[in-house]
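Subject: for your reference before the review

Hello V.,

The reviewers asked for a structural picture of the protein, and I figured it would be easier to keep everything in one thread rather than splitting it across files. Below is the amino acid sequence we used in the manuscript, unchanged from the supplementary table.
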Amino acid sequence: MTKVFAVRIGEKYGPEYEEYIDSLIPNVTWIHEPIRYDVKFQWNKLYPMSLDLDEPVVMIDIDMVFMNAYMDLIEYPIERGQFIGMHNWWATGGCPLQGGFQKYYPKDCRYIYDKFMRDPSYWQRYYIEKKETSGLVNGEQNFVYESVNERLELKYLPDQWCTKWKADPQKEWVVNMNANYPGDWLYLGEEFNPEIRVLHFLGREQVPEQVRQPKWEWLLPV
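And here is what came back from the structure prediction:
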């Protein structure tokens, strides 16, 4: 079974997020403490790249909702020298790699970890100062994207499997997502396309109340 890692550091996300993911995905290792005192929040997702493992691992974000045949994500095939990510198909411009899902061989990615750890403060400011991203702590996916392309073959999960979503989307927003979705349709009323494996909510305020409470029965696979 593929090892899965996720980060929950700080008070932004409560233990119900762990419980939700643990109820669906086996073998999850939770990262609760920073790699080092100066490594902030999502940048700790680089930790598995430091491990001496000869088998692939998966790193997922915590603000994800899984559905349909979602284990296809975890078991997606990979070869040495490859890095599997989630394509940011719903955005125009910016980093094409979405940071919510990564699959790789840790030994292949050790150079990425070492590059970051030589100067975490620099990299944690770099993409914000370049205005490629915004916020107080951001840029991890930009760093990974650029670093992967230095040595590895970047491949993406099928675009039809993944999407950004909002807890209470407006009709106009849904129409736009349906128009841009790389399939026949993304969302019709209360029904998602059966090709969808994961929704990424991109922030605690956007995660459905059913996850925050938690009341997850509607999200569990049938």
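For the response letter, the relevant points are probably these. The radius of gyration is 17 Å. Confidence is low (pLDDT under 50) at residues 210-222.

Happy to draft the paragraph if you're swamped.

O.
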